[in-house]
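Good morning,

Attaching, inline, the backbone tokens for the sequence recovery test we're adding to the shared suite. The designed sequence is right after.
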């Protein structure tokens, strides 16, 4: 269990480009204080190990990170908060993983809740096992949800849904009526068949087609995602992209670009630094 605990500790810190000195699993001992470093290898915080739990306190570029580890017999993880400097803005987060049978044998779930002036603003969720993500704005009442070949985008005045069934792409659009908002939209439904061959269970063409169709149905799909990225990334650079890529391990780069408009050119190709 100590080995998984140590891996979990490293994985959580990496979400925020934080690291520690080379730490062996056997080195965790009661009352131990561990220095935390940023990507420039400057000391920016501390972690304390006590009663088989870790408490983390670290300074990010424009915010402050607080975290506490947990283990419930099935999941290892961290409950955490990120508070903006000189502001009431706050993120409440959950990072948890468990041993699995896919990829690096770790199934990851990331969930974030954003608050401004104590009001709930937005939520994002990414999950390896369910191959799913959800992004919701409680101010604009817009929502994106993807789970195993089905993509939904609710944009106040209409609900858009695209479903892949073995290369048959079905799409639906229906108006959402509101007493204070009326759009002259008709119900729309149809399907298109993709004449592509799938090799080695690579369903990339299907997901690209799903994303293209949802954007045709409602061209606010990508602007909504970009708006939500900005809100979450305001707490830490590329936080949204990091959480998505860490969790959605079933997706390749092309799928992540199509479904979440992730710009991989912003991820600098640098060697990992290790504090000695």
């Amino acid at each position: 269990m100590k080995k998984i605990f140590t891996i979990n500790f490293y994985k959580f810190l990496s979400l925020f480009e934080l690291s520690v000195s080379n730490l062996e699993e056997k080195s965790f001992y009661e009352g131990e204080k561990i220095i935390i470093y940023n990507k420039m290898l400057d000391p920016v915080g501390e972690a304390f190990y006590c009663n088989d739990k870790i408490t983390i306190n670290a300074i990010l570029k424009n915010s402050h990170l607080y975290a506490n580890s947990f283990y419930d017999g099935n999941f290892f993880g961290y409950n955490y908060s990120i508070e903006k400097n000189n502001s009431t803005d706050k993120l409440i987060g959950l990072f948890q993983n468990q041993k699995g049978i896919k990829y690096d044998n770790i199934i990851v779930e990331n969930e974030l809740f954003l608050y401004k002036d104590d009001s709930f603003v937005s939520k994002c969720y990414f999950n390896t096992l369910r191959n799913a993500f959800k992004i919701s704005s409680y101010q604009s009442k817009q929502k994106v949800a993807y789970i195993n070949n089905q993509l939904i985008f609710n944009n106040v005045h209409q609900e858009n849904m695209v479903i892949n069934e073995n290369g048959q792409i079905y799409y639906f659009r229906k108006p959402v009526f509101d007493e204070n908002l009326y759009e002259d939209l008709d119900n729309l439904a149809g399907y298109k068949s993709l004449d592509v061959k799938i090799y080695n269970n690579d369903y990339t063409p299907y997901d690209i087609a799903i994303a293209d169709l949802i954007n045709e149905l409602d061209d606010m799909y990508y602007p909504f995602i970009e708006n939500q990225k900005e809100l979450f990334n305001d707490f830490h650079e590329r936080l949204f992209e990091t959480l998505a890529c860490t969790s959605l391990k079933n997706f390749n780069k092309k799928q992540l670009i199509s479904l979440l408009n992730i710009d991989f050119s912003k991820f600098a190709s640098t060697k990992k630094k290790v504090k000695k």
